[in-house]
């Protein structure tokens, strides 16, 4: 069995397209939603938030050890310092730090919980049955599928987002980046590295970076 | 509920499907469905636990066949009916109208106040600043209870009956189990609990892995209390979890 998350989406009047149009017109008619407010919500999640925000946070944590400590202690307050607002799916944000000894991986086995204010909406693979089922029971296999081969001695911690906490991984800073600016460091950080299915590479893995739209 | 959504540890779904340069949404209707759901949460017509519960109530075969936002749509339509916002006939008739190219626009002026910035719209659920006694503290050994409720729960099957250690007390949050069914507000502590992966998946599983779950206090019992009870008389000792309760004010 496989995921079917891309079926039919280009048919303008397919079942779901029609149904959703009907729901919207009903709710508008009843005065429960405002189409302009819907446009603003779409614009926000499509254009304003995304993993570049999380990458800024990571780069700052790499260059500023005191910020890093504050971020690990209270992520909501720390990202607010950078002018990044909290919001839905980020009110209770926890940043977990990768070290040479510990690698963290984020999942939501029950649905699709994800830290929206710092990473935007999750990619389809994060919501897929395959990822949800295997991340907790076969994290090394999942990582291998993403091209990450960890040393067998590295401990893996999988965070299954079963309640209100939303998680983001603070990846390891790659060697050889001591002279890079904060902005250049942020450029290296991929979405998948902040979920835990990738590690940050230097020189950058251009293919991996380009494959993530943000 | 022991539903198909509870996927942790299942086999057979194959490799993880990845899409290069994936757009945020794959179709116009996905954009609208997402925004409608968020706007509706903000109106408190139903809460996010009810929404998750409605997704979980999709029959398993349909759940597996549907795309992510199709599941949102099915759950949303079910809740519109459950909350008497729209009848099945109304939705049918609006769909026919939409098919005929009928107006998706307003028939009367919307009464929504659009002053809320979009970034603030969502299913905000603050940590409750209420004093509820905590039964556990970091370092305590616990067992996830073997609960098999037909209702909504956020205790995955793979952790039930397994031994873990409390790592953090996150504070007091609304218990989703009752909130998902009618909106009762049961406040209790939620903890970060670490389970060794061998405890979850057996001795054959490689060492050096763990899974951390955020679990509400009623999902947990003390491993020490359980051991004590078992050795005493075989009689099960039940300690009632601390739950503060107040009813949800009508929106």
Short description:
With 214 residues, chain A is mainly alpha-helical. Chain A has helices at 15-29, 35-48, 51-63, 65-73, 75-81, 116-119, 124-127, 129-134, 139-145, 182-188, 191-195, 206-210, and strands at residues 93-97, 102-107, 155-160, 166-170. In chain A, helix 3 (51-63) packs across helix 4 (65-73) and helix 4 crosses helix 5 (75-81).
Describe the structure.
- The complex is a heterodimer of chains A (214) and B (251).
- Chain A is mainly α and 214 residues long.
- Chain A folds into 2 domains: 15-46; 50-210, Nitrile Hydratase, Chain A.
- Chain A is built from 12 helices and 4 strands, in the order H-H-H-H-H-E-E-H-H-H-H-E-E-H-H-H.
- Chain A has helices spanning 15-29, 35-48, 51-63, 65-73, 75-81, 116-119, 124-127, 129-134, 139-145, 182-188, 191-195, 206-210; strands at residues 93-97, 102-107, 155-160, 166-170.
- In chain A, the strands form 2 sheets. Chain A has a two-stranded parallel ribbon.
- In chain A, helix 3 (51-63) packs across helix 10 and helix 4 (65-73) crosses helix 5.
- The radius of gyration of chain A is 19 Å and the shape is globular.
- Mean pLDDT of chain A is 92; it is low at 4-12.
- In chain B, strands 1, 2, 3, 4, 5 and 6 form a 6-stranded antiparallel β-sheet that branches.
- Chain B has 8 helices and 6 strands.
- Chain B has 251 residues and is of the alpha+beta class.
- Chain B folds into 2 domains: 28-106, Orthogonal Bundle (Cyclin A, domain 1), CATH 1.10.472; 141-246, SH3 type barrels.
- The chains are: A mainly alpha (214), B alpha+beta (251).
- At the A-B interface, helix 1, helix 2, helix 7, helix 8 and helix 9 of A face helix 1, helix 4, helix 5, strand 3 and helix 7 of B.
